[in-house]
BglG family transcription antiterminator
Amino acid sequence: MTRARQDRVLGLLSRNGDWVTAASLADALGVTPRSVRSYVTAINARVPDGVAVESGPQGYRAGAEAAVALRMPAAIEGGTPRDRLHTLVRALLDADDGVDVFETADSLHVSPATLDADLARVRGLLGGTELTLERSASQARLRGTEMAQRRLLSKLAHDEMEAGSFDLDALRRTLGEGSVGAHAFGPFKTELVAELGALGYFVNEFGISDVVMHIAIAADRVGRDRALEGAAGEVPPAQQEVAAILARLVEQHLGVSLGAGDLQHLSTLVLTRVVAPGASAPSDHARARLDPEVESAVREVVETAAAEFLVDITDEDFILRLALHVQNLQHRAREQAWSRNPLTKSLKSTYPMIFEVAVFIASGLQQRLGIPLLDDEIAYIAMHVGGRLERSRRADQLLTATIVCPGYYELHELLRSSVDRSLGQSIEVVGVETRVDPDWDSIDTDLVLTTIEPAVAGDRFIRIQPFLTDADVDRVQTAAARIRRSRRLARLRKELERYFVPSAFVHGLDAEAGEEAVIRHLGSSLVAEGIIDEDYIERTIERERLSSTAFTDALAVPHALGMTATRTAIAVGIADPSIPWGEGRVQVVAVVAFSETDREAFQTVFEQFVEVFSERDSVHRIVRRSTTFAGFLDELVAVIDG
């Protein structure tokens, strides 16, 4: 039983928010339902006075103490391999001459063989840190620069922090209990954000939390006489301002005096996580800080993405802010100081189309500027794209409504004002009927909000009070959401029946084959139909390497970035039990070939298809009953129709 699998159970239940069967959880984890029951028992043992996971006839769901259990340190449950690994790494980092394997094994109460296995795990952590682990007889030591050693500490800290969010307790476990305290870092972070704001910057809260982690590491290392050496060269005025703030706040709150090398490093990190200048800063001032090569590359990639996906993202302000972000990203890449994004998973599953545009942009930037981009960094680009598209997306989702309110003084005007104020973001009132006997059949809006009993029946007719109540608002919002969903799924059903290829259906994907083999297997059916060529399959594999296409906990949608298929088509593979994909497991793999003539289908197929497979019960039903293509299509349509 592993802590990681227990935490994954908690994560799945917390994201789902409803009951999930043991069989569904077992499929998601690639284990047996019996193992799931043991994980739940262990999770609840973390909070003896509460309930982290509720059990019932319908399965399991997250309890009131789920978040507490997820943050519970592993050390509370006794010494775990991860806890021991972090202790070993700290010992290696603190000892210039290395550690004695036998003495260290005794101090950790494990055998030398177990410690040898832990050292092998340490080697596995060193990728990208520029550190090496040397072993000579009974001595083991780390070789590398101080900056490389800090990268390793950062890697360990992120490993402790769930979903990439800042967790001070996890950071203290990485650095050692005597390192930092919440009493110091709460006020420190508050003052840092305030002073950066006073300098005219918009502060990325996720980024600043990550910087606070680096500051904690720097304070801990300087306190152990492990300061960074200062770099030669002139320091820009903006960086000098930030360095002065850091020097004062670190000494005031943490009791550590930072040298020139640490201040230069940390001020660079702060500036490269300040995504955009403040609202008061004119665009020409922002552009003066921008490398023309970066701006040109971003503009070219954004214009290509806009044409490829038919999205409106060529706004000058959007390009300028994204270019500033990419320039900061270049600095982070040089420092290998990547920013974590706790919204990565939710962005991927909730807005797959936006995330796909971000992947396309990231791919173009990687080719033009040579920046390697991780999923968390792609998620930041997705946040820029989503922010730009939000207004147009919201306008597309507005439903029309008619208010029926028999006239009495200005009652109908007051009601319309209340509806606009409370529901204006989801519906648009296009008419008001003040007759007590309106022609109900002639009202053709999406919704009819009526204060009197309608003479006709239908889901779009909603009774409300003359003076709008909270209950009225909830009912209207629920009805509007239901109508939008039914329309989306109706479009999806129509599209999917056109695009599925019966000969490209596989039941029983090989769990040992690996992602590339599954893509080739499903893609070969589309090649046989003359829909794509072998190059499309290779580009699909390249796209998968950029960022996993597992958009939900059950569905992967591999595809190439270019829309070069002769027609849009989908090859489907069912995995029962689930197979590994990316960092998780999936049960359905849909290789999608997109044609340039069907660009508009891309959004429909992508977002609504992912939406269907985001519901665990629907996935379970489809997988269990889809032994043939006909059965799969019948179950999918049944789920869509509700």
